[in-house]
Amino acid sequence: MAKIAVLPGDGIGPEIMAEAQKVLETIAPAYGLEFEFTEGRIGGAALDALGEPLPAATLELVRQSDAVLLGAVGGPKWDGLPVEKRPEAGALLPLRKILGLYANIRPVFLYPL
């Protein structure tokens, strides 16, 4: 059974992560897979609830998981905070560093003119 940490984050993140989880649950039987989903807090949602954008409990959850589903992090609500407390810098950057994820790859398509 694969352990998946679900970190919904902020804004549209929770809605997207709920649908992503449904997709994985739907296709799992077709491929003989089993998933165990555990939700954690990150970003502004964690900051509002716990006072920090990347709680120790979330880090532990991520370390014990085989994969992470990560939603959107940050938003205008937290723009006035010091950089180290803002969800993007206070959660995403440390998470990438701790997990050794140095690349942020996004697909790019070139369309003919």
Task: Give the helices and strands, then pairings.
Elements: E1 2-7, H1 13-27, E2 35-39, H2 43-50, H3 56-63, E3 67-70, H4 87-99
Parallel strand pairs: 1-2, 1-3
Radius of gyration: 16 Å
Poorly predicted regions are none
**Total of helices:** 4
Q: If strands are numbered along the chain, what order do they take across the biggest sheet?
A: 2-1-3
pLDDT averaged residue by residue: 92
Assembly level? single chain
Structural notes for this entry:
It is a single chain. The protein has 113 residues and is of the alpha/beta class. Helices cover 39% and strands 13% of the residues. The protein has one domain (2-99). It has helices at 13-27, 43-50, 56-63, 87-99, and strands spanning 2-7, 35-39, 67-70. The protein has a three-stranded parallel beta sheet with strand order 2-1-3, sandwiched between helices. Strand 1, helix 1 and strand 2 (35-39) form a beta-alpha-beta unit. The N and C termini lie far apart (47 Å). The relative contact order is 0.21.
Characteristics:
alpha/beta; 113 residues; 3-stranded parallel β-sheet; 3 strands
